[in-house]
Amino acid sequence: MIRSITRGCAAGAAGTTALNAVTYADMALRGRPSSSTPETVVDLVTTRMGHPVPRTRERDNRLSGLGALSGIAVGTGTGVAVSLIRRAGVRVPLWLGGLLTGALAMALTDAPMARLGVSDPRTWSAADWASDVVPHLAYGLVTYAVVAAPDPRR
User: Fold this and answer.
1) Nearest to 5 by CA among 147, 126, 144
2) Where are the domains of the chain?
């Protein structure tokens, strides 16, 4: 089980790196700004939990860091979940595993922001959807490929 958890962490970290690379490439190519959604979600969640980020000069920097860390946590956590599901015997082809893994990570990030009222995916444009789907698809394919790769120690 520890091996599956470790593999899932590595897979999720690799997938998160792919997601970030695709996102930053999109920003560079289209000249679009970074999203403030992660910071806004962190701000709302910490405030609702009774532990708001202090209102200091560095507040925006802290929220930015916490937003990025929350994305890494979701990415590695999803990798662990997918690895444990695969360990339990669920085996699907790479294309399907990648699609499902990406969809799971996307749901885990988009559902909280919709629930908190930060953004409403029902109002997104095609470009907005592409900016969300394409990086999550890259995440899913990389994460699932690492999870499904043969164990070199066997």
Assistant:
1) 147
2) 2-148
Sign of CA dihedral 138, 110, 70, 6: negative
**C-beta neighbour count of 106 within 10 angstroms:** 21
**DSSP class of residue 92?**
-
Q: How far apart are CA 129 and CA 106, in angstroms?
A: 11
Residues 44 and 116 sit within 8 Å (Cβ to Cβ): yes
Q: Which two tokens stand for residue 28?
A: 């560079």
What is the mean pLDDT for each group of 10 consecutive residues in the chain (154 residues)?
94 98 95 91 94 93 95 97 96 97 96 93 92 96 96 73
